[in-house]
Amino acid sequence: MPDPAAPEPAVPNLDAPGPGAPAPVSSAAAQVILAFDFGRRRIGVACGDTVSRSAAPLGAVPVRPAGLPWDALGSLMREWRPAVLVVGLPYNVDGTESGQAGAARGFADELARRYALPVRLVDERYSSLEAGTRLKDARESGARKRRVSKPDVDAAAACIILERWFNEKT
To answer: Does any domain span residue 21?
Structure first.
């Protein structure tokens, strides 16, 4: 017969996180964003977050003759766990979409399908030119030691695309 003076056993709160569980995410928590400068030879990649609103280059993923490098892109997705993806959409000087825009839209659509994440398109006009200028200026000032390569420009262009997205959101 149970002792009436004994305390009742604690009922576990199944809604509470267990030991070692991640803390609940607040609406003010930083979200990781990955940005892509899509190209036929390389895809520049940059990463940023919604709190610092800054972008950092992750490099460029080479595009193979057999198709897009989904294995390498999948590795980036698993490593960074982004909440949103941003893809540069190429426009002509007059504001019309360039010939490459269809391929960039197809890439964006496939990202959304494969990773079930929101994908935002951003005008990438002059991003590669601006990226090249930034990198060359950094080299001339001594802030950058090594030569500027095409993959460096692609990754820096992805940073510019992401910065533009952050600016559009304000």
So the answer is: no
Number of structural domains in the chain: 1
User: Is residue 19 assigned to a domain?
Assistant: no
Tokens linked to 22: 């991640």
Q: In what order do the strands lie in the sheet with 32-37?
A: 55-62, 42-49, 32-37, 84-89, 119-123
How do beta strands 55-62 and 84-89 pair? unpaired
| Contact indicator for 125, 141 with CB cutoff of 8 Å | no
Is residue 13 situated within a structural domain? no
pTM of the shown model: 0.80
| Residue 136 forms part of a structural domain | yes
Q: What is the DSSP letter of 170?
A: -
For 41, the domain range is: 32-168
- The 10s digit of each residue's pLDDT in 54-89 is 999 999 999 999 899 999 999 999 999 999 999 999
**Taking Cα atoms as reference points, which of 58, 45, 40, 124 lies closest to residue 90?**
124
